[in-house]
Amino acid sequence: MSSRTRIDVVPGQRYRKTMPASEVCMHMQIDDKVFEVELLPGRHMAQLYYADGPKKGTDFSFPITAGEAGFYYDEAAGNYYFYQSENVDHDAEIPA
Fold it and tell me: How confident is the model at residue 20 (pLDDT cuts 50, 70, 90)?
């Protein structure tokens, strides 16, 4: 069983994460694939970026909702978070 770490999300910062099996991710055929994801400041939307390969760091598509991107909202803390599995190198360099 893999352990999972809660990561609090800072809007405007990119995170490497495995995309969930949400309806939108399954439709785009990116569920269970690693992407860079940025919660857009002031919105409940997330922009996806290619995490690897020749398109690394470029937009994958239009923004999707934070929930479809696998972000959860903590009402008590007033911020989004997600659970990162250990099989993703979240310390990998992400382009600015």
Answer: very high
